Amino acid sequence: MMEPKKRILILGGGFAGVDCTKKLEKYFQNRDEIEITLVSDDNFLLFTPMLPQVASGIITPRHIVVPLRTLCKKSRIYESVIRDIDPVNKHVTLEGTPEKRGVRIHYDYLVIALGSETNFFGLQNVEKYSFTMKTLADALSLRNRLIDMLEQAENETREELKRRLLTFVIVGGGFAGVETAGEINDFLYDALNYYHNIKREDINVIIIEALSSILPGFNKKLVEFAHSKLEKNGIKILLDTIVSDFDGKNVIVKKSAKSTSTIKSKTIIPSYTLLWAAGVTPVEIIKKSVFKTMKGQVIVNEFLEIPNFLGVFAIGDCSRFDESINKSYPPTAQLAE
Amino acid sequence: MMEPKKRILILGGGFAGVDCTKKLEKYFQNRDEIEITLVSDDNFLLFTPMLPQVASGIITPRHIVVPLRTLCKKSRIYESVIRDIDPVNKHVTLEGTPEKRGVRIHYDYLVIALGSETNFFGLQNVEKYSFTMKTLADALSLRNRLIDMLEQAENETREELKRRLLTFVIVGGGFAGVETAGEINDFLYDALNYYHNIKREDINVIIIEALSSILPGFNKKLVEFAHSKLEKNGIKILLDTIVSDFDGKNVIVKKSAKSTSTIKSKTIIPSYTLLWAAGVTPVEIIKKSVFKTMKGQVIVNEFLEIPNFLGVFAIGDCSRFDESINKSYPPTAQLAE
């Protein structure tokens, strides 16, 4: 008698989901009774830590994407958005098209690796006008914006307007923010060879961080080195500072509540370009799921399994250890393993 | 006494405009009394004949763009859209921004090199749903569409829908159409390595040409060679055929009036993807200008000068010799010189 097939379903085509799929493919490579399926909203894995280099044009988009079908050769792959996770009936429904109802995939084991999305902390204007750094399109938009600002500034005769065009504000002093600030700064300085009316001192790249140091969670020595290196390259760093509004022309900042400074008054930084790299929040599908969450992340036990839903696992940015054994880690992909 | 400066203004950053600017820079390199200004709506020259290769992913976008500022080092460059050409008062006005009124540039000599845009011959549905191949964004959209269709077809169980997903119609058998069809075809065949449920015979690439041969204006032997090569590679070629409608799902075609065939009835080709490479028309700014045009192109004399407007020249796709000395040439950049 043939054993019934065991169906493993992985949701999410980021580092966590793809790495998990590859490991399962290898582990079960000679076991025909195991069926592995991967669902991702893109058909490629994006190497997100190098997005800032795409924005600065050092590397080209195709160098940081790998087709899922070349990475996960033995799995069935669906390029689709997930509409619903039903852990009681053990199936996941994918978004349909006007022509077609959504596909329903039944599983025996489920791995949720849906990552996170940008958290604007309720600042609607900021969300509307700012750039982010999560997708390839984001990186290319930012790159186009930098060039556009240089082009406009080159023929701009009014000093005030020129300064606003050439001021670039990065919110968030984590890995993404610091890396992006550095890349933007280098790109702009290199570009000056072609813009004869723009001088080095006309350019302002500013990092704004709510905490009292950049790169929280990283080694203290590294933080100090990075901080002084950035400043040496002309980047301004404002610590204990938060952004409260941005209308596309002016960035409103104030000292954070935790700051020891007694001055809490608002300051205005005139700038057309604000990059938001300040925080992440889980995706909608997890927020509305039946799973127990903390700060929006699915709570898992030491086996990364979701309590009360045996056979359902959550990994990567979207999961969080049970508080009793939880420690603090920087939110990077190395830890997703 | 110093001579007054002579101001030369070139409109258009395509092959014609950039080549003209470079030649003028070289010709007048030691003449400080000559001022050259180039206006382009992009800050790069796009090598349009290689857009199909970008669509197929053989080359990456940055390989077919060259920054104008590296090509034309001595000219003043404006990245802007032209709002108005006034050959009576000898000035050109550029589009402003909400912050700023449009710049006005005065000239002594004007060179118009504004190229052409896609002509849909009044077919509004076709314009709405079809892809074109004029800009980098066009090429990338088409590439994404090809991948998207493969992804959907891979997991599609209904044969009819699968065939529609995998049918790609290219309208226009000129250089752009033929090149694009070949690239699309190669790309799809190569991609099959990763899509195990799609077979070679599931894929349909079709060229539709209104005339009785592809590549009009080119050498007859080349045309025959190209025709049989395309068919050998699995591409279907429908001659004497025109597209009359496309709703995003079905392409309506009929035999052209010139066709010797007595059958004029409509045929439906089920396809989600139609690329329109069938014709060009001059840009809006020329259509509404005071210059005398024929089929929308500015009429010039043997010096490429516009009669009645001494010192104003038109070159490239947007110009046409006076009928009395006009001959037929294929509309390619080599001839723009």
Q: Summarize the largest interface: chains and residue counts.
A: A-B, 25 and 25 residues
Strand content of chain A: 25-35%
Give the domain tally of chain A. 2
Major beta sheet of chain A, specifics? 5 strands, parallel
CATH superfamily of the largest domain in chain A: FAD/NAD(P)-binding domain
Percent helix of chain A, as a range, is 25-40%
The number of distinct β-strands of chain A equals: 22
Q: Please, what is the oligomeric state? A: homodimer
Pairing-aware structural class of the strands and helices of chain A?
A: alpha/beta
Give the termini distance of chain A in whole angstroms: 37 Å
Structure description:
The structure is a homodimer of 337-residue chains. Chain A has 337 residues and is of the alpha/beta class. Chain A has 2 domains: 6-118 and 281-336, FAD/NAD(P)-binding domain (3-Layer(bba) Sandwich); 124-278, FAD/NAD(P)-binding domain. Helices cover 26% and strands 27% of the residues of chain A. Chain A has 9 helices and 22 strands. In chain A, the strands form 7 sheets. Chain A has a 5-stranded parallel beta sheet, covered by helices on one side. A 4-stranded parallel beta sheet of chain A has the order 13-12-11-17. Chain A has a 3-stranded antiparallel beta sheet with strand order 6-7-8, with no helix packed on it. In chain A, α5 packs antiparallel against α6 (159-165). The two termini of chain A are 37 Å apart. The model of chain A has no long low-confidence stretch (mean pLDDT 89). The A-B interface holds A 43, 57, 60-62, 67, 69-70, 76-79, 97, 99-100, 103, 147-148, 151-152, 154-155, 161, 194-195 and B 43, 57, 60-62, 67, 69-70, 76-79, 97, 99-100, 103, 147-148, 151-152, 154-155, 161, 194-195.
